[in-house]
Amino acid sequence: MSDTASMREPLTILYFAWLRERVGVAEEILELPEGVTTVAELVVYLSGLDQRHAAAFKDRKTVRCAVNQEFADPATVLQAGDEVAFFPPVTGG
Amino acid sequence: MAKISVQTGNFDIAAEISRLTAGRTDIGGVGCFVGIVRDDKPRDAPARAIQALTLEHYPAMTLRAVGRIVEEAERRWGLLGCTVIHRVGRMLPGENIVLVLTAASHRQAALDSTAFLIDWLKTKAPFWKREEFPDGEGAWVEAREADDTAASRW
User: Fold this and answer.
1) ipTM score here?
2) Chains A and B: how many Cβ contacts under 8 Å?
């Protein structure tokens, strides 16, 4: 696949636990928005979509993230085609 | 080769220990931790007594995350065998949630690596617990600072 083709691949956004309940869906597909290069910028973009997203991301300190199934942080850089997951701090075991 | 499983069904603790040690004469001890659903009944808040626990996870990430934690334990303690079974879905008080078994030459490695594995599973693997209360309401369990402290001692 050429670089130009991969640029058009959308992001897959996944939500777990109470983030999923607040957003109202487990998964959404969207193009990497213009000007969004990091997880932190994606969170700002998503928060501005509607009230549900705003509620989910209201308390940013309790939101954790993984990019392509690896734990990530606000500064993690995003690429087209990435799978980005948002969830609360984990509570397994 | 470690056995890692994320499953809805229960596990047989004795069978898992036998599987780990069968045919081996180099293992000096097996460390074992079994996590069980506890029916917390707060005296001051009976409405919050736990009726059931539902474990959600991130399927595409879970095995990889648990695998990393197991590799870290194998590396640090030179384990001779390891089994991690984590259940997901809805469970009732008294049911098993998680099994950690480690086999080592000596007890210290087996016991320490078992404690390490459960501490890290609680803080570094994508599982989330939701409690159900008698009125049918529920609440996601909040991460505890004590768990982070326990995980950071390793």
Assistant:
1) 0.90
2) 72
